[in-house]
Design a protein that fits this description.
By secondary structure, the protein is an all-alpha fold. It is built from 14 helices and no strands.
Length: about 375
């Protein structure tokens, strides 16, 4: 979740921009917001997936709802920066960049997490009897569950050469049409009908993966400006979505006496509206004009944003040691409030320093 070549999101690849190529500042800001939100979600996870009859669950669910846009936002940034990659280089170069900047670091940190997990008794490696077991463990993210996103983003990259062919101005109206149909038949109807226990045949839907729709949305929102009216309606819809998700989760869970996630999912209508609202509002703040002449601030934002991939890779380890060293109750309010920025700053600092080491920076691009 790191940026490069006019903020090209890899999950971020902050190499130098070409001469005369202007950096899009709001991409960096969105990138930072997204990784911060990831940490917020993980700090509230214990409460959200715990006892639903506690205050911790009720307040943790608020955090869960508010920051649910994190992963969709990363995907939208990838769409905004990578769907037009053909304007900068060919497909061979595209895959080479992805391999070096994402795949190799992922492999390294997956191995690292297996070793670290075994050392800290987080993983029982004795269950892996042969090479096939180890391979299966890797593909099922048993080293660290949050690494599921790596396979998702790598899958997105495999699809990008096809998506990039759609990145033309004359195709945008058709893409918006696809987005609308997806929203109705994949996001809105299945979600709401599910609350009333009405079965929706998912075969009757737009045949686009849940993650790909955010790639398309990122490209569209980056290249078109929504009117004030549409922005207001989008914001209003996201507020309604937040309330809807919280209320449905609360009452359905209380009724079932266990956590019910029937209205959850990144493809849900409230998730799409929330992610689009965050993207649009940050874009409309005109940071490019506000900070355009402040080269120092731009460099700082660039450096911070450039550490996001590394923060994603290591922050769970940081959280583990925070809990151990400071004897933190993961159900406490402090853990999902004050410790969120603390965890982010510590992770950011660690990544920044590690990137200074020549060999290490190869796996923390």
């Amino acid at each position: 979740m790191e940026l490069k070549d006019n903020n090209e999101v890899i999950i971020n690849d902050n190499s130098k921009l070409k001469k005369n190529e202007k950096r899009v500042i709001y991409y960096d800001i969105l990138n930072i917001i997204a990784i911060f939100s990831v940490i917020a979600l993980h700090c509230s996870g214990t409460a959200v997936y715990g006892n639903i009859h506690t205050r911790a669950w009720k307040t943790g669910l608020i955090v869960e709802c508010l920051f649910y846009f994190a992963v969709p936002l990363f995907l939208m940034l990838s769409g905004a920066t990578l769907m037009t990659y053909r304007e900068k280089y060919d497909t061979k170069t595209f895959f080479k960049k992805r391999f070096i900047k994402v795949f190799i670091p992922f492999i390294f940190w997956a191995v690292f997490m297996f070793v670290w997990g075994a050392k800290e008794n987080q993983i029982n490696t004795s269950q892996y009897k042969n090479l096939v077991d180890w391979i299966n463990a890797f593909f099922s993210n048993q080293e660290l569950t949050i690494y599921y996103f790596m396979f998702e983003i790598l899958g997105v990259y495999l699809t990008m050469p096809l998506l990039s062919l759609l990145a033309k101005k004359e195709n945008r109206k058709s893409l918006w049409g696809v987005v609308l149909l997806y929203f109705i038949f994949n996001s809105l109807l299945p979600n709401i009908l599910g609350v009333f226990k009405i079965y929706w045949n998912k075969a009757f839907s737009v045949k686009i993966g849940d993650y790909i729709i955010f790639i398309i949305l990122g490209y569209l929102l980056a290249n078109e400006d929504l009117s004030k009216k549409k922005t207001f309606l989008l914001f209003l819809g996201s507020i309604e979505g937040l309330i809807y998700r919280y209320i449905t989760t609360y009452f359905l869970s209380m009724s079932a006496n266990t956590l019910v996630k029937i209205t959850w999912g990144y493809s849900s209508w409230h998730s799409i509206l929330l992610a689009c609202t965050v993207f649009t509002l940050v874009k409309k703040m005109n940071f490019d004009e506000l900070f355009g002449e402040n080269k120092t601030l731009i460099r700082v934002l660039n450096k911070i944003s450039g550490c996001s991939f590394g923060v994603y890779l290591i922050h769970i380890v940081i959280m583990y040691y925070e809990v151990q060293i400071f004897n933190i109750n993961k159900l406490s309010v402090l853990w999902r409030t004050i410790w969120v920025p603390i965890t982010y700053v510590i992770s950011l600092s660690m990544v920044y320093l590690l990137k200074k080491i020549p060999i290490v920076k190869k796996v923390l691009p």
